UniProtKB/TrEMBL annotation:
UniProt xrefs under PROSITE patterns: AA_TRANSFER_CLASS_3 (PS00600)
Molecular function in Gene Ontology: succinylornithine transaminase activity
Named cofactor requirement(s): pyridoxal 5'-phosphate
Binding site for pyridoxal 5'-phosphate: G105, A106, F138, D223, E224, V225, Q226, T281
HAMAP family: ArgD_aminotrans_3
Localization in the cell: Cytoplasm
Cofactor note: Binds 1 pyridoxal phosphate per subunit.
Catalytic activity: N(2)-acetyl-L-ornithine + 2-oxoglutarate = N-acetyl-L-glutamate 5-semialdehyde + L-glutamate; N-succinyl-(2S,6S)-2,6-diaminopimelate + 2-oxoglutarate = (S)-2-succinylamino-6-oxoheptanedioate + L-glutamate
CDD domains from the UniProt entry: OAT_like
Record-given protein name: Acetylornithine/succinyldiaminopimelate aminotransferase
Primary site of residence: cytoplasm
Organism, scientific name: Pseudocitrobacter corydidari
Length: 406
């Protein structure tokens, strides 16, 4: 007989690095989830921009079960058909010539930063090792990537940190220009900061970074872990900007919920990563690759990508209407279905409170820092689910304002 599980078990058994919601989801379908008590939630969180096709999508189930019936894993001493097919899909759809598979966005960014340093060391010498990143960025939780992420709260407790990483102000080209020089091997940037508050890059900022990297022989890395695979209404966000990076990292939505990540690279730079220079036990696993291939083939279509833009309109029109009534937010911003609602100064620091009230109303949302409520729903969420979800969000906003002291 299976053991009865409760939310309190988390506090007793799990390392306390998370503070999960008080309910435990047990079943999902499309953009809806049900908890242990049978309560229904509409999912605007999307597993933090992961569940691009929602929950229990038939094509994903089929891809996983078909591959599971064949074989699960061999390690990197062998290749497999699903990984090669997925690599070709990514190459055909992007600027890339080569792909490295891993298990997460952090690993993809780790690989990108390592590649950039190795390329610079091989071509120019060990003096060229500087990395320029941006304040309020988020690139993962490994020691290298948490240092590149410009949020000291995530890195300061783990010092000493990897050296020669400096942080400019996001969307401030002059700030970046002051740090990028001939000793810089790479610039890593999110085309839209996700964890940093859902802040899209200015086109001129990304164009300027491309020019600075070209001038100083530095690689331009786009972290598209959160913005990639259709999230913004283009397959990858760099396509909005007509700025092509040298390296691109992708994960999250790539597997639609199955852990997978990838580093995409031009041949010139990928060639320095020779046998033994980097690796991973599970990267390119046939189960992950099969699922990701199915996800990618569905999302990389005009129907889905244009549908994201339509859904963004549904969200923004209604959110603007809600804000006109309650005057909670300074700004509603984002691209596609990565949307942030920044609280006014009077309500600073209370995004979590709104997300908790939303959950009580049967809606799962995210936050991006203490001041931004974030939405990252499935790319194929229905109009009915958007409408009902925003009805619930409006009730949460109303309850929040009723509980705020004058």
């Amino acid at each position: 007989m299976s053991q009865s599980i409760t939310r309190q078990d988390f506090d007793q058994w799990m390392m306390p690095v998370y503070a999960p919601a008080p309910f435990i989801p047990v079943r999902g379908e499309g953009s809806r989830l049900w908890d242990q008590q049978g309560k229904e939630y509409i999912d605007f969180a999307g597993g933090i921009a992961v569940n691009a096709l929602g929950h229990a999508h038939p094509a994903m189930i089929q891809a996983l079960t078909e591959q599971a019936g064949k074989f699960w894993h061999t390690g990197n001493g062998y290749t497999n058909e699903p990984a090669l097919r997925l690599a070709k899909q990514l190459i055909d759809a992007t600027f890339a010539d080569r792909v490295f598979f891993c298990n997460s966005g952090a690993e993809a960014n780790e690989a990108a930063l390592k590649l950039a340093r190795k390329y610079a060391h091989d071509k120019f010498g060990s003096h060229k090792s500087g990395i320029v990143a941006f304040k309020n960025a988020f690139h993962g939780r490994t020691l290298f990537t948490v240092t590149a992420g410009g949020q000291p709260a995530y890195s300061q407790d783990f010092a000493p940190l990897p050296p020669d990483i400096r942080h400019a102000v996001y969307n401030d080209l002059a700030s970046a220009s002051a740090l990028i020089d001939d000793g810089t091997c790479a610039v890593i940037v999110e085309p839209m900061q996700g964890e940093g508050g859902v802040v899209p890059a200015d086109p001129a900022f990304l164009r300027g970074l491309r020019e600075l990297c070209d001038r100083h022989d530095a690689l331009l890395i786009f972290d598209e872990v959160q913005t990639g695979v259709g999230r913004t209404g283009e397959l990858y966000a760099y396509m909005h900007y007509s700025v092509t990076p040298d390296l691109l990292t992708t994960a999250k939505a790539l597997g639609g919920g199955f852990p997978v990540g990838a580093l995409l690279a031009k041949d010139t730079y990928a060639s320095v990563m020779t046998v033994g220079t980097h690796g991973t036990t599970y990267g390119g696993n046939p189960l992950a690759s099969a699922v990701a291939g199915a996800v990618f083939s569905i999302i990389n279509t005009p129907q889905v990508l244009n549908g994201v833009k339509q859904r963004q309109q549904w969200f923004t029109e209604r959110l603007l209407s809600i804000n006109a009534r309650y005057s909670l937010f300074n700004e509603i911003r984002g691209l596609g279905l990565l949307i942030g609602c920044e609280l006014k100064a009077a309500y600073a620091g209370k995004a979590k409170q709104i997300s908790q009230l939303a959950a009580e109303e049967g809606l799962m949302v995210l936050i991006a820092g203490a001041n931004v409520v974030r939405f990252a729903p499935a790319l194929i969420i229905t109009e009915e689910e958007v409408t009902h979800g925003l009805d619930r969000f409006e009730r949460a906003c109303e309850r929040f304002l009723a509980g705020v002291s004058p």
